[in-house]
Amino acid sequence: MQLFDVYPLYDLEPVRGEGNYVYDSQGQSYLDLYGGHAVISIGHSHPHYVASITKQLEKLGFYSNSVQNPLQQELADKLGALSGCDNYQLFLCNSGAEANENALKMASFHNGRTKVIAFKKAFHGRTSVAVNATDNDKIKAPINRTYTTEFHEWNNLGSVSESLAKGDVCAVIIEGIQGIGGIHVPEPDFLEAVAEMCKKQDTVLILDEIQSGYGRSGKFFAFQYTNVEPDLITMAKGMGNGFPIGGLLIHPRFKASYGLLGTTFGGNHLACAAGIAVLDVIKEEGLVDNAAQVGEHLLQQLAEVEGVVEVRGKGLMIGVELPFAVGPLRKQLLFENHIFTGSSSDPNVLRLLPALSLKKEEADQFVEVLKSQLVVSH
Ligand SMILES: Cc1ncc(COP(=O)(O)O)c(C=O)c1O
Q: How far apart are the CA of 307 and the centre of ligand 1, in A?
């Protein structure tokens, strides 16, 4: 049987990972500044993570959401304490798209409306409701276009407020920091004003923290750089350090009822063991602070590199804009310098999303390599 060929692949096969490195079958190490699309939060194969999942698998890997599973409450308690969102309610699912799908459903259940405000270059996933709020027509099938989405300019309060004033908007969905679009940080004033208007119109504010959350920005959630209290917060990626797990944080003013949301696999024992281990390591190793400090250092160093147009981001969610398309540079970084980096929908932006455990020396190593590569390409 052939694989459905939808991914352009690098000719490289990592066979092992440890900390901030992956290794190919020849034992060559690669500094991982991408974490497989922002997924690796605590580092590859962290011993506590491996031991927790292994121990759980030996006891019970899975049972459905029809029986008691105290691991879900343990995860909720630890997440609440670490994120500062203890008053929210947690719904567990399996991926980022599923988290956004459920968030948009919750919004529509709440106010009965269907129109959604999203932002230019936004990415919210590939499932039907989520993809319709994604600003990429190429990945939308006709069957996905089930409701009206307006795509507004990032940070443009005027157009958003004009639309919200009509009182017919179901939800505003916005990334805590826009990722795939090329790393764009929302202005705090903008986000706070949008939140205020949403409140007035009973429009649901959804913070998509799937990429920017779980400590990546140097705070647990990127929106915590502002005074916003979102109605719904979506999470995935770093939550399981590679184990598929997603979640939705739901403001206490939304009431649950049996059957409102559901999933077969979401919140299963293994996923919870992975999620709890991630939170334990983030807490024990102070990884949110590390992301803030190493991220700040890296942002500063990168801003001084000659040839760089702009550096954007917070913590370890960084976009480096260059005056040329970065595809060939990424290949050189990977095959000559053995460093993984990411792309974005902006061809000129290099995206850095390393594990939150990145060391200052590793950040410096990248800056030196980038300098030398930029000298070569000019
Ligand atoms: C901000 C954001 N939202 C949603 C998603 C979708 O997540 P998943 O691929 O787990 O469905 C992504 C994935 O890249 C993302 O970056």
A: 31
Asked if 168 and 105 touch (Cβ cutoff 8 Å), the reply is: no
Length in residues, the chain: 378
For the chain, give every residue range classified as CATH 3.90.1150.10.
Answer: 14-46+286-376
Strand-pair partners of 204: 171
Summarised one tens digit per residue, pLDDT across range 33-42 is 999 999 999 9
Q: Which residue has a Cα nearest atom 7 of ligand 1?
A: 96
**pTM, rounded to two decimals:** 0.98
Residue 343 and residue 37 in contact, taking contact as beta carbons nearer than 8 Å: no
Distance separating alpha carbons of residues 339 and 22, to the nearest angstrom: 10
Q: Which CATH architecture has domain 47-284?
A: 3-Layer(aba) Sandwich (3.40)
Most ligand 1 atoms within 8 A of CB, residue of 92, 139, 184, 210 to mutate: 210
Query: Would you say the CB of residue 211 lies under 6 angstroms from ligand 1?
Result: yes
Q: Where in the chain is the domain with CATH 3.40.640.10?
A: 47-284
At 323-370, the pLDDT tens digits run 999 999 999 999 999 999 999 999 999 999 999 999 999 999 999 999
In terms of CATH architecture, what is 14-46+286-376? Alpha-Beta Complex (3.90)
